[in-house]
Description:
Order of helices and strands: HHEEHHH
Helix content: over 70%
Number of helices: 5
Strand order of the largest sheet: 1-2
Strand content: under 5%
Largest sheet: 2 strands, antiparallel
Radius of gyration: 15 Å
Amino acid sequence: MNFVKRSRPRGIIVVVFLMILFGLAEVVTGFTHQFFGVTTANGATSAYAGALIGVLYAAAGLLVLIMRKWAATLAIVCLAADVVGRVAMVFTGLYPVDSPAQTFAIITGTAIVVAFAIYILSKWRAFE
């Protein structure tokens, strides 16, 4: 496994760790319908949609570990799907925006996903 021996920039390691951690937290939120005061609508659709968004987030982190351009491209696609999924959940009411704290959390979480995608693009030369 060549990708295990390969040296990775420290920033990429931190981003990968955070994407996997945040993705797993999103999966948990999908099924428990709340996380640090942020809630999702109850129901199977919300649970599965939220969990899928989390899986995409964590998968993006794992893909970045491969350190190949094709994997980084696929990671960015996963992050873009994550953003689209979050927006769709807001518009369908699966992510309620009934309080300023809830709205702030959704906007901030989505901005972090976008920031990770931008960071990966900014490190494009580190990928083979």
